[in-house]
Design goal:
2 copies of one chain form a homodimer. Chain A has 428 residues and is of the alpha/beta class. Chain A has 3 domains: 152 residues, 3-Layer(aba) Sandwich (Rossmann fold), CATH 3.40.50; 161 residues, 2-Layer Sandwich (Dihydrodipicolinate Reductase, domain 2), CATH 3.30.360; 81 residues, 2-Layer Sandwich (Alpha-Beta Plaits). Helices cover 37% and strands 26% of the residues of chain A. Chain A is built from 14 helices and 17 strands. In chain A, strands 7, 8, 9, 10, 11, 12, 13, 14, 15, 16 and 17 form an 11-stranded mixed beta sheet that branches. A 6-stranded parallel beta sheet of chain A has the order 3-2-1-4-5-6, with helices on both faces. The termini of chain A are far apart. At the A-B interface, helix 1, helix 2, helix 6, strand 11 and helix 12 of A face helix 1, helix 2, helix 6, strand 11 and helix 12 of B. Chains A, B: Pfam families: ACT (PF01842), Homoserine_dh (PF00742), NAD_binding_3 (PF03447).
């Protein structure tokens, strides 16, 4: 019975979760793999720092090579974050014959293809369940449970910070800045929240999901994205009156020969299961050609949920180690016949602020018509002020065509502002 | 590169799904396992029967031994249903060194422990993802993705027929018999619906889930269960007025040293994600000590969703075959310190029909009080008739204590009927 030894790179939030889970659930974990297991060494920046965790100081080190080059260590667990240093350490680990588990979405989204090839070359395993959706088993479901399916569509809420903010705005009529401050106070948003609220974090995760589900490599930078900073509580109220909730959706879908994807604030019908995903929770809706519709829901972040996914990956590798390991990483299946489209056509919700004069609506409607954009509905919510909201829901249109029309509409002297442009998805 | 051959026992609804998925997704499937794959022989009762599927007649046989004893066949897929014959065929398959995939909840719930031991003895794999929740990856999630967790609670909607009926009753104000007939017409209920509507099917599945999640073997017969036949559209209406939906829940949870479980119609708060699981959909809520709350949602039945899970299992076994297989079945982890309780304490919804006389409510309330049952709320929905509904929601009480009180309440000559007894779960 092999005794399995682990090297941990990083002892922040996720690293502590990994330590606590292995300590607290030791019986369960060791019974599952049929071996004993031990975290032998942990890389930290400062050994003397006070930590609210029972890790013996002797196993801490500031020298990564003491871990990566230790011949007794079987598995390296990278939970330090960042991109380039983490990338270097993972490569070095492979070269030293170590299997690697990482929770690092940025490094997988940016260098996943290179790491995949390297793992294959060195005959070791690379697992990254925790990089998307925290403790929710998204990667395992897509790569294993749904292996019999061609995936047609993914659409989900994969950033907990923005979902928490949107939920607070919706349930307690806060504006964006109030809700952001509350999220920061509660630890759901970072001091610098840019990556979350501008949709970059979601784009990293969507890039990983696209490669896992469709076998297509799209860099996070190539994903059309918009954050939630421009959403007002008025938008949330109007959307609600129309029967929708506003969610930051990440989506990718095959439509005939086209492949579309985006990260964008979107109106979701109120009775759709995604509309009831609240606060810091995440959910991913998957459509496969055999399984039909599937949804996975849970906590997308946090020390213990993310640690749950990391330790799950560690244990799968333990089971591999105990057999005669041959590389079991999954060859992404390339569907080379698809046209890479980006965000494709959609219905849109346009919130304009206009002067309440006769003829303004007609003028705007004519401009839409000139650009071949037809309207599903128009709603005017107030009257008589200097600036009144006028809400349009369009039929399906390409974004750049919409932008041309809006550019012209903005020139109209009775139009004060194009306050919001949101997608509308009438998810079947 | 090994060519993998499969023997299929049964070509009903699920068998056809398995055939269609392997045919339609052949490129994806073969790329995933890195081998070619073929269904070599299929056991049927009648070779000449007309089937709406492109299976060549030459591969059909009525002799199970032609499949089970074929030395070329690697994997036997049992999708014929029933209990004892299926059990015999699976045992014979193991003895012939075959790995087995089954979608048969009855055989796994009844003989899972024996089959698990036999698979271990013969060094082969047994997989049964499709036995619970159709295409939803419940078994994989519990056994693999959540392997780092101790599971504290499972609660779910795991029977699509009853959920379809309850949804129709709720959304279209049908009574039970109307909704059942519609379900039969749509193919969601069998000609003899007993097993579904009386909760037997859910008890089979819960028995499997309990063994997989908690390592405890509870026979389906030992699970306290009640079906949905006594639920009236009035109950659904009253529940709705109180902020609840009625769902047939299957649940199992650890409470300190006790282990509780049941299949029972239950009031679920309307904003809980389980309340929005409609029609034939299934969902399972899981609470693990690391991951927190997780929910899996999808189609719990049907040819293609169930086939998706069966083929997923086949492909995992293919990957095992390609390595040097050592038994990888999961040893259930026995938590022997738990007291097996059955359904434990709960809040209850009691719908009584009474004569509208002064003093009736007081009399009933006193009887509850005599049995130490305190009431959370009492609602009287109508006045002045011979029979008026009087609804009680109790605080937490043991079921047998409640039954004693209700027995005495029934003796009251102004109580016409105890119309319904439903659980209330204020799922956190």
């Amino acid at each position: 019975m092999k005794h399995i030894k682990i090297g941990l790179l990083g002892l922040g939030n996720i690293g502590k979760g990994v330590w606590n889970i292995i300590e607290n659930n030791k019986n369960k974990v060791e019974s599952y793999i049929g071996s004993s297991i031990e975290i032998k060494k942990i890389l930290v920046r400062d050994i003397q720092k006070n930590r609210d965790i029972s890790v013996p100081k002797e196993i801490l080190t500031t020298d990564p090579n003491k871990i990566i080059q230790d011949p007794e260590i079987d598995i390296i667990v990278e939970v330090m974050g960042g991109i380039d240093t983490a990338f270097e350490y993972i490569k070095e680990s492979f070269k030293n014959g170590k299997h690697v588990v990482t929770a690092n979405k940025a490094v997988i989204a940016t260098y996943g293809d290179i790491l995949y090839e390297l793992a294959k070359k060195y005959g070791v395993a690379l697992r990254y369940e925790a990089s998307v959706g925290g403790g929710i088993p998204i990667i395992n479901t897509l790569t294993q449970s749904l292996s019999a399916n061609k995936i047609d569509e993914l659409v989900g809420i994969i950033n907990g910070t923005t979902n928490y903010i949107l939920t607070q705005m919706s349930d307690f009529e806060m504006d964006f800045n109030e809700a952001l401050k509350l999220a920061q106070k509660k630890g759901y948003a970072e001091a610098d929240p840019t990556s979350d609220i501008e949709g970059e974090d979601a784009a990293f995760k969507l890039s990983i999901l696209i490669s896992v589900a469709f076998g297509i490599r799209i860099s996070p930078n190539e994903i059309p994205r918009e954050g939630i900073t421009k959403i007002s509580k008025k938008d949330i109220e109007y959307a609600s009156q129309l029967g929708y909730k506003i969610k930051l959706l990440a989506a990718a879908k095959k439509l005939d020969k086209n492949f579309e994807f985006y990260v964008h604030p979107t109106l979701v019908p109120i009775h759709h299961p995604l509309a009831s995903v609240s606060n810091e929770f995440n959910a991913l809706f998957i459509r496969g050609n055999a399984v039909g519709e599937l949804m996975l829901y849970g906590k997308g972040a946090g020390s213990m949920p993310t640690g749950s996914a990391v330790v799950g990956d560690i244990l799968e590798i333990c089971k591999i180690i105990k057999t005669d390991y041959k590389n079991q990483s999954i060859d992404p299946f390339k569907e080379i016949n698809l046209n890479i489209i980006g965000e494709g056509i959609s219905q849109y919700y346009i919130h304009t602020e206009v002067v309440d004069k006769p003829g303004v609506l007609g003028k705007i409607a004519s401009t839409f018509s000139k650009y071949n954009i037809s309207l599903e509905s128009v709603v005017q919510r107030a009257r008589g002020n200097q600036s009144v909201p006028l809400i349009f829901i369009t039929h399906e249109v390409e974004r750049n065509q919409l932008d041309k029309a809006l550019e012209e509409i903005k020139q109209n002297r009775f139009v004060n502002e194009i306050a919001s442009i949101l997608r509308v998805e009438n998810l079947s």
